[in-house]
## 1
Amino acid sequence: MSVSKHPLFTALAICVALAGCSRETPVTFTSSEAVTKLPDQLQVDLRAALAEHAGSHATPKLLGNEDVDAATLRRGQLVYHERCVQCHGDSGDGNGPVAASMYPRPRDYRKGIFKFTSTPYGARPMRTDLIRTVNRGIQGTSMPAFRLLPEEDIAAVVDYVLSLTRRGELESQLVELVDFEEAVDPELVKDECVPAVIQKWVDAEGSEVSPLTSQPVFTAEHVTRGREAFLSEQLGCKKCHGEDGRGQTKDNLAGNLKDTWGHVTRAADLTGGFLHGGQRPLDIYLRIHNGVNGTPMPGFANALRDDPDKIWDLVAYVMHVTNARRSGERPLPGPISPYVPTASAESGGDAEASPEAAE
Ligand code: HEC
Ligand code: HEC
């Protein structure tokens, strides 16, 4: 008797199949808070316009890319419900059942803002940025890597994430329209709100940032120059990251910094060994050049326009700092006293990690 004919197996298969359909109420998208505050009739009209252009949970649609077919979005939705929804939520609002206790919080896609992009500060990401993030995860946060999923599943789930994202953006546009017009005029929706959402995505696809100068072979001199730049008043990295890069500054410790999504945030601990935006020199370059959207981390493209090699110096220094623990150096516990240059620091050595400092 083959395994598949075994009665126990059949019973099991039926149970699994039934469990799959046991969800009592069909999933629907929840509206943003701004929508729920509108008068009832406007809410109804707004939701209808939103469904027409950006789809519903039952019939998802990718606004701006009508060539992405229903089967792909369905597949993406299945993957999303299996692997993403517990953190990112049915509507992509970042409010899944396990999200509340996380730092950083899972992304609320609905603003269209993503942190780890290869596009200039303030721009939408490229589709390939999201594919890369889903593949390799965001190290040092709860966002897992999904590189073991089939490539088609990753592509499909990214399309689905994009559909939730643009739906959220259109929802905000419609709220603005209603605030202004006190009605949902279908012509204005089609001619103004929808293009306002799509255009930013079109612009992003053509705006990939390439380094201004080519990546050098890093030496101790790059690290020393990078440290100087990091500690300089001109760039002010230390104001947020601390002199030692651990982010133990007053603002960080007091929780004074907020991100675009309204959550408390802090400057990255660059010594943690896991850079959220990726560990490659190019990843670090892009973080410094482009900044991190939605957070206080500014882009330094303008500040360093006349001295582009300094970005690579900073990359060398960040890599040095982030790898220090891995190579067995122990940073001091607790907040750190002001930076005092020592002889070894001047020669490109490891001031924070000298044996005295580690005790
Ligand atoms: C265990 C929780 C968890 C799961 C499961 C999860 N994520 Fe995330 N995700 C996060 C967190 C936390 C962040 C925010 C990290 C940050 O801000 O640095 C995030 C961020 C993201 C981002 C934003 C990247 C950027 O550049 O801003 C995307 C896109 C994303 N996740 C997609 C997915 C997809 C697709 C899935 C399922 C295949 C998924 N996530 C599953 C927790 C999760
Ligand atoms: C106004 C505060 C501020 C300043 C100034 C600042 N940063 Fe940041 N930086 C941040 C914050 C906040 C983050 C974390 C973003 C996030 O949520 O992932 C960050 C993230 C980073 C990252 C990415 C870390 C990762 O995990 O991938 C790098 C690299 C970085 N900063 C380097 C620098 C350098 C170099 C300078 C100076 C040229 C600098 N920062 C100046 C606030 C700042």
## 2
Amino acid sequence: MDFKLTEREELLRKSVRDFAEKEITPKIEAMEETGEFPLDLLKPMAKLGITGIIAPREYDGIGLGYLARTIVLEEVARVSAAVAMGMQVHHMAIAALSDFGTEEQKKKYLPPLAKGETMGCVAITEPSGGSDVLGMQSKAELKGDTWILNGRKCFITNSHTSAYWVVLAKTADGPKGLTAFIVPKDAPGAKAGRVEHKFGLRGSNTGELVLDNCQVPKDNLLGQEGGGLAVALKTVSESGRTGMAATALGTLQACYEEAAKFANERVLYGKPIGTLQAISFYMAEIYTELDICRLLCYRASWMKDQNLRFDTESAMAKYYTCDAAARCAKQAIEIHGAYGILQEYKVQRLLRDAMVTISAGGTGEIGKVVVGRAALAPFKKKA
Ligand SMILES: Cc1cc2nc3c(=O)[nH]c(=O)nc-3n(C[C@H](O)[C@H](O)[C@H](O)COP(=O)(O)OP(=O)(O)OC[C@H]3O[C@@H](n4cnc5c(N)ncnc54)[C@H](O)[C@@H]3O)c2cc1C
């Protein structure tokens, strides 16, 4: 077993860390105020390979794989979980197109996404409930050579910043009745609706997509007609959960750093508070959670790179890391005493960001449903 990252992965980490500290930090105040994604970061992020990290090389991507992507997202999220969130969903759109697109579709849509010319999104959730994918109401009907889509998607990351939407809709009833489509934002009848104002991950754009007799050509079907559930499950499980986990991991790393710095700097009774046993125990817990989460996140992405099945591991990494980031952010605030609740201290933002990662990309309960199933399977009595 080898826990050492390659020299290339370490270099990638360093270059993304330097970039995030220098270029993303100055944008945070505006992101917190407006909630808007800083689109001017797309080009410099593309230069570093962040936008196209998992896009195949033949379509202008970097093709470095999922472990490299986790490292990149972790470093971006260490500075801004909101920017990491935008990128992780952008990667989900790239993954869906790479996995299920035809050669024509890949040639058309992957290069502009990989090069950061625009963003992509994946629209599954509807007001009828995100966990109940089969309960979605959006419908698609083929009329001649055109698909007509009707419905409303909500809580969609990059809803207003994406030129290309991967949209799930019903073409029939039941699990074989879901179908995925590529909807360009300027397709007739396609409209980005309201923007959500979140208390955390401010700066990642979240909103509605409205499909009102939206027309897309027959060729914009992604995968097979009736194969939409497979598109949703693979995309959410592989790129979605690992991406959310990596976003929470970067937040957790930031919690650790803020807590450790404060515990060493704040002096009470003539000594840094880190020398108090209670504070050092908090630090031990945060430090251990960080290690557990990093191992879970790296293992899941490494398994993807090895072409191993990893749905249980990605669900474990996602639900555990998002929860741990919120727990540790709370502890980091407690270590700060009253300072922790002040706007100018980063820890309050880390708690808000960590909380928002919990339901995004599938709730903690749904993650546990997946892991619970795997935990019970080996001892299940045969009927
Ligand atoms: C910041 C953010 C970004 C998002 N980005 C996207 C995106 O880009 N694309 C997209 O399609 N969606 C996106 N979502 C939506 C997200 O995937 C859903 O919020 C999530 O799937 C849960 O759906 P829901 O909010 O409708 O909750 P519901 O499904 O209504 O769930 C409500 C509660 O019931 C629990 N529950 C539901 N089913 C079960 C079960 N079987 N067992 C136990 N408990 C259960 C849930 O865990 C939750 O606690 C985003 C959400 C957020 C917050």
## 3
Amino acid sequence: MKSVAAVLHEVNKPLEIEEIELDGPAEGEVLIRFTHAGLCHSDLHVMEGDIEGWLPMVLGHEGSGVVEDVGPGVTRVAPGDHVVCSFIPSCGSCHWCATGQQAICDMGASIMRGHLPGPRWPISGPGGRYGAMCMLGTFSQYGVISQNSAVRIDPDLPLDVAALVGCGVPTGWGSAVNAAQVRPGDGVIVFGVGGIGVNAVQGARFAGARYVIAVDPLANKREMAERLGATHSVATGAEAAALARELSRGLGADKAILTPDKMTAEVVAEAFEATGKASTIVLTAMSGFTEQTLRLLPGVVATLYKKTIKGSLFGDCNPTSDIPRLLALYQTGDLKLDELITRRYSLEQVNEGYADLLAGHNVRGVIEHQHG
Ligand SMILES: NC(=O)c1ccc[n+]([C@@H]2O[C@H](COP(=O)([O-])OP(=O)(O)OC[C@H]3O[C@@H](n4cnc5c(N)ncnc54)[C@H](O)[C@@H]3O)[C@@H](O)[C@H]2O)c1
Ligand SMILES: [Zn+2]
Ligand SMILES: [Zn+2]
């Protein structure tokens, strides 16, 4: 069948809107009509070459939709189901899935290679064989994805906000709740409160943080962070460090969560400086694979202060259980999702959406797909 999609052909070039050809679903695969796709910063890392993947590639790894058809052997979803697409697949049987760590499922190792397990290449176009970002490619009207990437949700839930629970929401929330293990009374600093960081703010507050300092150079992001649970907000890491000390009689913050648009040695050093003894620093933001982002001086302070520095993928969440769990918190009003959508775009406006993200206008932009 045919679909219209936004395709990256070359690094540092705009996405091209074109008609692609999609094969039907094979064993273990699902044909999905994508209804919504979120504009996460990770797609920009691909467009700018920080994260390398197969090109041409249909971008988009945050999305939701309706199952249209399933291939042989599909048991997780059925036609008509509403689903959230998890940017991390979960096979259910590798060592990591079997030990409750689906976020680091072995299938994740190949999600930028463009193909589905097999390898299977369901997408083609004028440029030949096309890949799909994170085995999804949600910047398309339709997609063929692995059932391991599809999580069925309550059909009453609005699919626009549900799309954000495929990446930004669990990644941010889980960076605070699971990776940093925020405890009642903790002092928390979140560096960078865009689409991911603002959800770290929500998670930290819900987990009982005494204070949550949102750091962002942009006033509109700081305002949203305060609306969604930050007790304080500042423009720089140095201000956050001073404020954390003031709020803790000199102890410093207990937890720092790093969600700026790009991880840098500078922001890691700021977090190292702002946190106190027995603190945890969570590295969530991405950077180029050759960039040295850990450069701490004096590093021995990590030893003397018993500090933990850890990475986190998908907020250490388990997609199959945590996507429905987060949506249940939305239904009770404890997790705010409607507020996260700053602007809606058609697929044709995807480059404008990313220009708005780069200009600092959006917490999250969302593509609303049109069909026929
Ligand atoms: N680990 C994961 O599983 C995972 C998943 C999704 C996204 N990411 C990464 O998380 C990062 C954030 O993504 P996003 O979609 O929220 O991006 P975003 O562009 O929406 O937000 C980034 C925010 O950081 C702010 N910022 C920039 N420099 C800063 C600094 N030095 N100090 C404080 N704030 C600063 C920006 O003003 C912006 O508001 C990206 O690197 C993305 O690739 C990681
Ligand atoms: Zn993302
Ligand atoms: Zn697995």
## 4
Amino acid sequence: MRHFIFSAFVILVAISFTQTSCYYDNEQDLYGTGNCDTSLVSYNTDIKPIIDANCISCHAPGGEEENSPLLTYDDLKKYTGNNDMVDRVNGTSSLMPPSGKMNSCNVSLITAWVNQGALNN
Ligand code: HEC
């Protein structure tokens, strides 16, 4: 029985280690919807990490939607003027990412950033 408990413990530690080792460490993912300050959203601090984690697997060279890359500020800016970006992350037009809506903190940050003028800040 002790051996069993010990092995179970080792397996548990191993599982939690593999899960954290590829974890994308940004504030929104760590704190979820509770800590979501949209008062002044920054492209570099807030938006780029969200896009890098959720969008560029497709929206970059080699990805399935490589013709509309989202790697840089200028890339992203093309989709903020007509609110295409906001509609898509909110699911008002075809949802992005297609696999499912992001957490509400990410959605609010992108929406707020566009509403604040989509600044390169
Ligand atoms: C699994 C792949 C995939 C992921 C991940 C993904 N997209 Fe897309 N995206 C697509 C495809 C495919 C299209 C083209 C079909 C369409 O317009 O719905 C597209 C189209 C778009 C367009 C319109 C492009 C144009 O030229 O009109 C925008 C804007 C967009 N996505 C934003 C995003 C954002 C923002 C994210 C991350 C939050 C994201 N996408 C994540 C596959 C993806």
